[in-house]
Amino acid sequence: MTATPEKDQVRIFDTTLRDGEQSPGASMTLEEKLQIAEILDDMGVDIIEAGFPIASNGDFEAVSEIAKRSKNSVIAGLARAIHTDIDRCGDAVKHAEKGRIHTFVSTSPIHLQFQMNKTEDQVLDIITDTVTRSRNLIDDVEWSAMDATRTPIDYLCRCVEAAIKCGATTINLPDTVGYATPDEYKEMFVQIRERVPNSDKAIFSVHCHDDLGLAVANSLAGVAGGARQIECTINGLGERAGNASLEEIVMAIRTRGDILPYMTQIDPSFLVRASKMVAGASGFAVQYNKAIVGKNAFAHESGIHQDGMLKNAETYEIMRPEDVGVKATSLVMGKHSGRHAFRDKLRELGFELGDNALQDAFRRFKDLADRKKHVYDEDIEALVEDEINVLGEGAKVIALTVIAGTGGPQKAILTMDVGGQHVTKEATGDGPVDATFNAIKAIVPHEATLSLYQVHAVTEGTDAQAEVSVRLEADGRIATGKGADTDTLVASARAYVSAMNKLALRQQTSNPGALAAV
Ligand code: KIV
Ligand code: ZN
Questions:
Q1: Where does Mn(2+) bind (predicted)?
Q2: Which residues surround ligand 2, an ion (CB under 5 A)?
């Protein structure tokens, strides 16, 4: 979609892989980041902030790799106002057809005094120096005034003027601590654009955190004040209460075009799929009543609503579910479906598996169809995502028997494939899940601690597949695994083993030889 005289284009800058990944416990593997970047690129995100290249070798590798693979999106990396950060960022984004260095410094009195121990004039010198250095490396430079909303407007004007003078092409004024209200935030952009010389030489950007639940409202207010770039994340993932949610912003602009005279080039039919992908990779499940992408966002339970919906969907629906990629739940496959039909169904759902993975997934699908009356698209998605989770990695769950009930202790008898060998052990625990996890520990001894255990039903009914997320932590590293099965305990074991494999893989990458015990 191109901008029309009536509708200004607003650029969508997605920072799921940087600000989103920064939220505690949300770290993602390289493979997950590449998949997310691909869907963001495909859906029409203008700028993807792929990471913080100086933060670790893993971040550098992710930004470089995403830069190499990007098709249409600009690929940005974040850099503090330090030469080594900027140079490292430049090295990572140079692989992109369109790369951007995003450098930032704090400008508020509280940050200057307590975090930086610098005077206002010193920070102005830093801005001049670091924006100039960035511009010497690349043409597309974004400068951010961290904690802009708590910065006196006169000083903020001087900072923005310095950044534009040194060649910053985008000026981002974040509400870093989620403190602003919509009127205030709008007014800040109006003032800055009016008062700063050459303000028309840069694109202004909003970046809002959701501490008071105002991130989306503030972002739209900033646009009303003249900003034309919105920084946001899928599912609103991000530090503390999160960032403004991409799907809410895109659909608000699209649905209320009557009073929001803007447009984005996002194809909204990717939104639900991107949301599921980010939830899976980060381990942060989406709440059922989350706007746009929550499981209940288009569900109508009450009789009055259902009656209205049957007569005319617009009685209670302001958006069509299919616009955001919600498929009508379909009964698709059963135990008589063959391998060909299964592969076609996978393609329709967007999965392309290699021969071995397809074989494994098909075997599990048959197994599922034997146990579950109706197999829905969601079941197949969960099963295949689970398959992808364990692909090519160390240990695998082969068989599990659990003895549970009122008279504890509960007992698990588990067989796993570890390095090609089948090992069986028994363990007891405080409940069946604990017993299962203890049995895994008995087979693969490790020190990792469990920091998250979540169970969701994939579809309706008592024979629904359970989708379990498990997060493990060891030596400051975090990994999230998912598992799906009609048996919650089997799903739990698969999720735990998947997280354990990922953690081992990470340890191995940073310290070859450390695989044995996670
Ligand atoms: O919230 C913030 O201020 C940021 C900056 C680094 C842009 O994330
Ligand atoms: Zn932020």
A1: 19, 207, 209, 243
A2: 19
Helix-, strand-, coil-residue percentages of the chain, each rounded to 5: 45, 20, 35
Radius of gyration of the chain (CA): 25
Ligand 1 proximity of 436 Cβ (cutoff 6 Å) = no
Tokens representing 72 are 């249409």
Q: Name the residue of 86, 176, 232, 239 whose CB sits within 8 Å of the most ligand 1 atoms, as the mutation to test its pocket.
A: 176
Residue 301's pLDDT is 58
Q: Which helix (H) or strand (E) holds 509?
A: helix 488-510
Residue 392 has pLDDT above 80, yes or no: no
Closest Cα to atom 8 of ligand 1: 19
Quick: pLDDT tens for 114-156. 999 999 999 999 999 999 999 999 999 999 999 999 999 999 9
- Residues of each annotated binding site: 19, 207, 209, 243
Ligand nearest to the CA of 170: 1
Q: Closest by alpha carbon to 219, among 195, 254, 194, 253?
A: 253
pLDDT the model gives residue 488:
92
Per the model's pLDDT, the better-predicted residue between 316 and 124 turns out to be 124
Q: What does the pLDDT average to over 107-114?
A: 97
Task: Find out whether the beta carbon of 492 lies less than 6 Å from any atom of ligand 1.
Answer: no
Which residue, chain included where needed, has tokens 């004007």? Answer: 157
Work out which ligand 1 atom sits closest to the CA atom of 15. Answer: 8
Q: Is the pLDDT of residue 161 over 80?
A: yes
The CA angle 84-142-245, to the nearest 5 degrees, is 110
Mean pLDDT across the stretch 391-396?
67
Q: How, if at all, do strands 466-474 and 449-457 pair? A: antiparallel
Helices (H), 268-421: 271-282, 303-311, 339-348, 355-371, 377-390
Which residue's CA is the closest to the ligand 1 atom numbered 1? Answer: 176
Letter string b/e over residues 312-340, b meaning 16 or more CB atoms within 10 A of that residue's CB: eeeeeeebebeebbbeeeeebbeeebeee
Q: What angle do CA 206, 208, 210 make, to 5 degrees?
A: 160
- The string of pLDDT tens digits covering residues 322-359 is 999 987 655 567 788 888 888 888 877 777 788 888 88
Give the position, in ligand 1's atom list, of the atom nearest the Cα of 144.
7
- Both tokens assigned to 25: 């416990």
Q: What is the pLDDT of residues 431-452, one digit of tens each?
A: 999 999 999 999 998 989 898 8
Ligand 2 center from residue 134 Cα (angstroms): 20
Q: How far away, in angstroms, is 287 Cα from ligand 1 center?
A: 25
Poorest-confidence range of 100-104, 180-184, 398-402? 398-402
Residue located via tokens 């259902």: 306
The burial of 258, by beta-carbon neighbours within 10 Å (0-12 exposed, 13-18 middle, 19 or more buried), is given as exposed
* Alpha-carbon 352 to chain mean position: 22
The minimum-distance atom of ligand 1 relative to the CA of 231 is: 7
